[in-house]
Amino acid sequence: MQTNLSNVAVQVPTDRLSEFYTMLAGLFESVQPETNKLTEWECSDGEIAKKVYESLSPIAREIYESLFNWAPTGLTVDDLAESTKKKPSQIRGALSWPSTHAKSFGKVPIHCQMEDGKNIFVTEKVAQIFKDALGRS
After folding, report:
1. Residue 19 is inside which H or E element, if any?
2. Confidence at 134, pLDDT banded by 50, 70, 90
């Protein structure tokens, strides 16, 4: 089952942005394939990657552009905030949605965190799938 997504613009107080994204992401927990089994990203998932990317907020797109370029090393939340000129709370909030979008297409989340919980990264494979889908190879 594939879910159609729409962009919705709302104004949220900046200091509550991460809370808003977390709460809103919870609405989509039930929007998963009938099997409830998420699959890994494959090279043939370009169309899904493009749809997921298009559904991201502008802040999330900036974050993922950085992560795609730093795959598989990754960056800390503070590094991402500095490179995108955002606040760490904005980074955390924006990272809650992409996983939900990926899950709505039956895919595992785009990004991962190192065991130490500090570095956020995407794998080289995922980065390449998204770069190819977006014509940025």
Report:
1. helix 17-26
2. very high
In terms of phi and psi (left: phi > 0; alpha: psi -120 to 50; beta: otherwise), the region of 117 is left
Which DSSP helix (H) or strand (E) runs through 51? helix 46-54
d(CA 129, CA 48) in angstroms, rounded, equals 10
What is the tally of structural domains in the chain?
A: 1
Question: CA 134 to CA 137: how far, in whole Å?
Answer: 8
Which residues have a Cβ under 8 Å from the Cβ of 76 and sit 6 or more positions away?
118, 119, 120
**Closest to 71 (Cα-Cα) out of 127, 136, 134, 132:** 127
- CATH code (residue 66): 1.10.10.10
Report the predicted TM-score, pTM, of the whole model to 2 decimal places: 0.70
What letter represents residue 51's amino acid? Answer: K
